Amino acid sequence: MEKMYFSRLSSDAKSIVNEIEGHIRKEISIKLGSNQFASVNVNSAVISIPNSDYFSDGPILHELLHLKRYYLEGVAQVEVYDLFRDKVHKDCVNYIDNDIEHLAIIPIEVAMYPQRREYWMSAVRENITELELIRKNNLIGGDVISRNFNTIFRWIFLRHIIKDYELEARVKSLLESFGAVEKAIQLDGIVASNLPKEVFVREICDFYEFSTDRISLKYASGKEMTLTKYFQPSVVEESNSYSL
Q1: How far is residue 212's CA from residue 244's CA, in Å, rounded to a whole number?
Q2: What phi-psi label fits residue 140: left (phi over 0), alpha (psi between -120 and 50 degrees) or beta?
Q3: Is 202 in contact with 93 (CB distance < 8 Å)?
Q4: Core-most of 31, 33, 134, 177, by most CB within 10 Å?
């Protein structure tokens, strides 16, 4: 990581940077001018943020924990196979991957920086307000599956990660309005099973009847950080294909 950014981090965050960079033998790059996210590529590890003022321990730690999961722990990233660019389906898969990762990352993040709990509380509160507006105006908000999935995972997040009974009650009311209480309880049971991510993704796809032949698992493996995509054999013929 460039010295101008690295020097602004706490010792804990610096330690994670050193751990990741030591493993991949490349610097973590900071990219300005886009939304906050971390990306894993063959030749680089990148943390994107809107601007340099946004660079601070909290947001950067969050993205570093994403990178640590992908690079050091070998956790798969879930993506929509490039031949399929259905936006609703792609958005849902992105929600799946991000929300699964947050279940693992945010407890560590909050333990390291307790002030981040209020950040996530605020983010969930804002999301709930948007969903309540959708209910009030009888709007779909993109599509029913995305709306319900978003609502269910906010409920799961509040039950397992940021425990707040007032917000949980607001989400429970939304679930009742959307007719999604039973699905929420079923999905909560899947989350509580603590399954490997690959199995977890398959369970969620089955749960929502998503076609898994449109999904790939991307791994960063070995010190060369080669990325491997595994597809359904029905879509791409590969000798070592891994079928969800």
Answers
A1: 6
A2: alpha
A3: no
A4: 134
Q: 3-state DSSP helix/strand/coil percent for the chain, to nearest 5?
A: 55, 10, 30
**Is there a domain that residue 99 lies in?**
yes
Kindly report the pTM of this predicted structure.
Answer: 0.84
Instruction: Indicate if 96 and 51 belong to the same structural domain.
Output: no
Whole-number Å distance between alpha carbons of 42 and 56: 26
Same domain, residue pair 86 and 200 = yes
Residue 143: closest CA among 95, 100, 99, 200: 95
Q: Which two tokens stand for residue 133?
A: 């507006």
Give all strands (DSSP E) within the chain, no chain letters.
Answer: 28-32, 37-40, 45-49, 77-80, 215-221, 226-230
Cα→Cα distances 241→5, 183, 230, 234, 238, Å: 40, 31, 5, 10, 5
